[in-house]
Write a structure and sequence with these properties.
Layout lengths: L1 E4 L4 H9 L3 E4 L8 H11 L1 E5 L8 H4 L5 E3 L5 H12 L15 E4 L1 H4 L5 H6 L3 E4 L5 E3 L2 H11 L3
Parallel strand pairs: 1-2, 1-3, 3-4
Antiparallel strand pairs: 5-6, 6-7
Bound molecules: zinc ion.
Length: 153
């Protein structure tokens, strides 16, 4: 299950990625017209998550070729819960919250020069994004995200 979040739902996209789902986020400054987003969702088999009911008037959405869920303005956790319950999502290996890339587990030695010395000593497992190359580890920032995610999915 893959998702496409409209420009209002960037926060939700990041959380879906953290939960392990491929979630494209239509950024401001790129072509985020309804037509473009619907075409992309159709082409890539993505479910449209949008705060804008106007998408329902688009033919591929209307005739059911593009899955669609209207996500109202709610706290992030409640938005995520809505999507989780609607589509029966389960927790998976996280993706890069920044760019949606898949993460590889990499040994400490491979990332030693990319992380602060205190961090590399404290952690065994590191993750590197296949797309943007960012390195992640399960530090306190991740624990907070993980705790909040765990209450929903
Ligand atoms: Zn990335």
């Amino acid at each position: 299950m893959r998702f496409l979040c409209d420009a209002m739902l960037g926060g939700l996209a990041k959380w879906l990625r953290a939960a392990g789902y491929d979630a494209y986020y239509a950024r401001e400054g790129t072509d985020v017209s309804d037509r473009t987003l619907v075409a992309k969702a159709l082409e890539e088999g993505r479910v449209l998550l949008t705060s804008d009911g106007g998408f329902l008037e688009r033919k591929p959405v209307r005739d059911g070729r593009v899955g669609f869920l209207k996500v109202p303005h709610l706290p992030l956790e409640d938005q995520l819960r809505l999507v989780v319950e609607q589509f029966g999502l389960v927790r998976r290996q996280s993706r890069c919250m920044e760019c949606n890339g898949e993460l590889d587990v990499v040994p400490r030695a491979a990332v030693a020069e990319r992380v602060p010395p205190g961090v590399s000593g404290d952690h065994e497992r590191f993750f590197r994004c296949q797309d943007c190359g960012r390195v992640f580890w399960h530090g306190s920032h991740w624990q907070r995200i993980d705790d909040r995610l765990g209450r929903v999915i």
